[in-house]
């Protein structure tokens, strides 16, 4: 699961880019699922 994408499924452009080794085309933002991870990453 990609926590930055939230509960939504990854669409085809995401998987197509992964298979071809291209940069991830999906715009990412903080989601409620990613928030606990983000908080831990910001701790010193």
What's a concise summary of this model?
This protein is 39% helix and 0% strand. The protein has 44 residues and is mostly helical. 0% of the residues are buried.
Number of strands: 0
Determine the N-to-C terminus distance. Answer: 26 Å
Note the beta-strand portion. Answer: under 5%
If you average the pLDDT, what whole number results?
82
Key structural traits:
single chain, 44 residues, mainly alpha, elongated
Provide an overview of this structure.
The protein is mainly alpha-helical and 44 residues long. It is built from two helices and no strands. The protein has helices at 12-20, 35-42. It is elongated and about 35 Å long. 0% of the residues are buried. The model has no long low-confidence stretch (mean pLDDT 82).
Blueprint of the fold:
Elements: H1 12-20, H2 35-42
């Amino acid at each position: 699961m990609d926590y930055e994408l939230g509960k939504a499924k990854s669409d085809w452009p995401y998987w197509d880019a992964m298979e071809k080794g291209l940069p991830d085309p999906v715009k990412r933002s903080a989601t409620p699922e990613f928030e606990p991870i983000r908080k831990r990453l910001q701790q010193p």
